Amino acid sequence: MELAELSGEPPKLSVAVVTELGKKGMRPEDPVLVRIFKQESELELWKADASGRYKLFKTYPMCRWSGKLGPKTKEGDRQAPEGFYHVSASMLNPKSQYYVSFNLGYPNRLEAALGYSGEALMVHGACSSSGCYAMTDQGVGEIYAIVQKALQSGQDRFQVQAYPFRMTAENFGKHRSDPNMSFWLTLKEGYDYFDLSKRQPKVAACDRRYVFNREFDGGDPRNPLTACPPAKSIASADLQALVAAERGKVEAALSVEKSTPALAYVDGGMHSSFRTLLKKQGASKLAEDISIIKYPVSRPEAALVDPYSGRSAVISEPSND
């Protein structure tokens, strides 16, 4: 994995990014949408065309996230959030201590109503996390420039969908014993509405959960804790049938009696490409290569553990980070 040269200048759309957008039929000013996957340690950036359908622009490897799979519920739990968020221009921070960042807006209306606590949960640079998603300075600089341009060009806010893993039936089967399963099944519906239609799902909250692509009598529910009022779907019958079919695949996977290995989460995760660099060159050199201020890699020994194999690697230099 080759890392681009660091720059202390404010992020801007490079000629290379504009060219890459053009090759994919995208414009810098087109609306954006972000998806985040913890288990895979990846962030996807999508761009919408004139019809409102989104196409994937790029998948970025994530250097660090903390905690384990599951939603964030309280201050200090080191959990990176899972759910649906909306980011406006005022939530972009060009003077972050981690180069630049944008605030996810945790807790959102549903999370606040449920009593969840925490603040300043970000997507930012460097490779350090205590509840945030750290993308390296190079990665967040490119992402920041793209989303900033979209917001400056008329997009009111962009949606961020944060998931524990890519929401396939196979992955649900692997996590069948997880106590967060009912919450993840709710996220799965929103995931499928986007994945199958490539259109941003409308998100509301009632009955203590997210609801998607619903039009309610009298407007969206004001209290996320009360029962959902009468509503009709704004999705086509064909799309609803596809979403139902996906739910059936997950239910079938969950019904299979099969033992699942326990995950060895020491603290969060790291994309395999960065784990390779960390193992090869050590925490100090990695921090130097991906952070303007050389911000230390958070808990590097924990980052070397592959949660899905239960194995850890040996770092090439001693570190007190």
UniProtKB/TrEMBL annotation:
Keyword terms: Cell shape, Cell wall biogenesis/degradation, Peptidoglycan synthesis, Transferase
Keyword presence, Transferase: yes
Transmembrane spans: none
Molecular functions (GO terms): carboxypeptidase activity; transferase activity
Biological process, per Gene Ontology: cell wall organization; peptidoglycan biosynthetic process; regulation of cell shape
Biochemical pathway: Cell wall biogenesis; peptidoglycan biosynthesis
Pfam families linked to this entry: YkuD
Domain L,D-TPase catalytic residue range list: 32-163
Catalytic residues as annotated in Swiss-Prot or TrEMBL: 124, 132
InterPro entries the record matches: LD_TPept_cat_dom (IPR005490), Transpep_catalytic_dom (IPR038063)
Entry similarity comment: Belongs to the YkuD family.
Protein name, UniProt field: Murein L,D-transpeptidase YafK
